[in-house]
Amino acid sequence: MDAALIGLTGTTIGALTGFGGAWLAQRGQMRLFREQRSYDAEVRWADDKRALYRDLLVAMYKWHDALVSIWKGEDNAELDASRTNAITLVVEVSLIAADPVRAAVEEAHRTFFNTQPHIFERSDTREGQPAEPVEDVLEGVRTKLLAMETEMRRELVTLR
Asked: Where is the chain membrane-spanning (predicted)?
């Protein structure tokens, strides 16, 4: 009887140990699978982000150049197209960007909208002659663009 009890106990311990080992191995594999999937998603978005960030920067700089042209009194029919393109790309970037990039893009976008009335007032009232306050406003726009570009670069470097 003792041998049967010892055999049963050994079998039970063996079964529990086997079950625990299989459970731990499966858990480790699931964690590895999740991490691999997360990494693959980040890498997959890296090329899309790189192209989207590039397009957004180009669109924002075109918007900036259109505002400068209006401020200088030059006729610029590109303003509506460049602004619309930039706004479209801002929305797309806000869907896939990390929080620091999203915040920098939204801040630059908001600065552009706050700058436009100053530019329009300046071009209407002084016929495009340079004035320090508008220069300061444009410098603020350039500062926000550089901050946005820096955050985009920082995110793209971490994706590599």
From this structure: 6-25
